[in-house]
Design goal:
The chain is an alpha/beta fold. It folds into two domains: 147 residues, DHBP synthase (Alpha-Beta Complex), CATH 3.90.870.10; 169 residues, Rossmann fold, CATH 3.40.50. Helices cover 39% and strands 21% of the residues. The strands form two sheets. A seven-stranded mixed β-sheet has the order 5-4-3-6-2-1-7, sandwiched between helices. Strands 8-9-10-12-11-13-14 form a seven-stranded mixed β-sheet, sandwiched between helices. Strand 9 and strand 10 form a beta hairpin. Helix 1 packs across helix 5 and helix 12 crosses helix 13. The model has no long low-confidence stretch (mean pLDDT 91).
């Protein structure tokens, strides 16, 4: 059967375009209409909801609205051992209550937690893709109630398939030599598609031999560490020292991926930093906000490597998740190599947490030796 074609879209691209528009609407604090078969519901970001719109949605809801929360946030609210998304009934769309349940540190579950259905899970995926808090106001509606409203309607199938569809359409849109300090023979290759809301970049250092295992680092963007030299992490050190090492050792490829804050986005990263300044561990801070240990996906990174002709890699990483993702995508991981940053009083707890909570291969003794004063 031939694929459908829209006037301004490529064959089979209608779902992608619709989800793109839905993300823009959701981030702009406007409701998105979700469909699952004959069931419809309006989804609105809990953190962006405004009073006037909440009142209008309350009128539509007839007491059947609900707040969808991630398992991580529900655990912080007192639902111990919770492993799945849940819902709280909203007889009234009370923004003060919603803010408390979605954000307040001392909040506790104030009603029975119900099981999430397909529309609820799709609503949270919409929030995650939009890089806002994983807390969504969901209002079941009928087609008659929203007839004539300027709403973007998206099916849960389109939402749930969006990430894979983005990987499938990943393509190179530009490349050029960009000499770097300490690595003058370097090329930047820009890809469109994949994860996040911006383009992805491969930095090819030197002339790596594609017939052997290519040194590769998957580096998630870190505005604070990479650009401003933040002392709260080791990202900037890892970025610059990896490029320097590749320049001195027959080349390699660094993928610079739009996955700020372990995939949570810059605004949520700053919220987590605020919590860390109050004494929270990096992963506990994320859980308070409703996020699990790591929201990132790396299938699109493997697709970038394949388009560059890479089939086997030496993974420059401390993160076993990245090694597993590369293997799962069909690339060979011939070896791994640790990437050390510099410890300081601001990041030593963060580094220890990555080792102890997320299983990163971090030798704290080796790190501290790097920080020790030289004779």
């Amino acid at each position: 059967m031939p694929q459908s074609r829209t006037l301004f879209g490529r064959p089979g691209e209608t779902d992608l375009v619709t989800v793109d528009r839905a993300l823009a609407e959701f981030r702009a604090a406007r409701p998105v209409l979700l469909r699952h078969g004959g069931d419809l519901a309006l989804a609105l970001s809990a953190e962006l909801a405004e009073a006037e719109l909440a009142t209008r949605l309350d009128d539509l809801s007839a007491g059947h609205a609900r707040l969808v929360l991630s398992a991580a946030r529900l655990r912080r609210l007192g639902a111990k051992g919770r492993a799945e998304t849940g819902i709280l009934a909203m007889p009234l769309i009370d923004l003060a209550r919603i803010e408390t349940l979605a954000l307040k540190l001392d909040a506790r579950v104030d009603a029975p937690v119900g099981p999430a259905g397909p529309l609820d899970n799709a609503a949270l995926e919409l929030a995650r893709l939009s890089l806002v808090l994983p807390a969504v106001i969901l209002v079941p509606v009928s087609a008659k109630q929203v007839a004539g409203e300027p709403l973007i309607e998206v099916t849960i199938e389109a939402l749930n398939g969006y990430r894979a569809a983005q990987v499938a359409r990943l393509s190179i849109v530009g490349r050029a030599p960009v000499p770097l300090e300490g690595a003058p023979d370097t090329e930047f290759v820009v890809f469109r598609g994949g994860e996040g809301l911006r383009d992805q970049v491969a930095i090819i250092v030197g002339k790596p031999d594609l017939s052997t295992a290519v040194p590769v680092r998957l580096h998630s963007a870190c505005l604070t560490g990479d650009l401003f030299g933040s002392l709260k992490c080791d990202c900037g050190d890892q970025l610059r020292e990896t490029v320097q090492w590749m320049a001195e050792n027959d080349g390699g490829i660094l993928l610079y991926l739009d996955q700020e804050g372990r995939g949570n986005g810059i605004s949520n990263k700053m919220r987590a930093y605020k919590l860390q300044s109050q004494g929270w561990d990096t992963y506990d801070a994320d859980e308070v906000l409703g996020f699990d240990l790591d929201q990132r996906h790396f299938d699109f990174a493997a697709a970038m490597l394949k388009q560059l002709g890479v089939s086997s890699v030496t993974a420059l990483t401390n993160n076993p998740l990245k090694v597993g993702a590369i293997k799962a995508a069909g690339l060979e991981v011939a070896a791994t190599q640790r990437v050390l940053g510099r410890p300081n009083v601001h990041n030593v707890r963060y580094l220890a947490s990555k080792r102890d909570r997320a299983g990163h291969f971090i030798d704290m003794d080796a790190l501290m030796a790097r920080a020790a004063p030289k004779d």
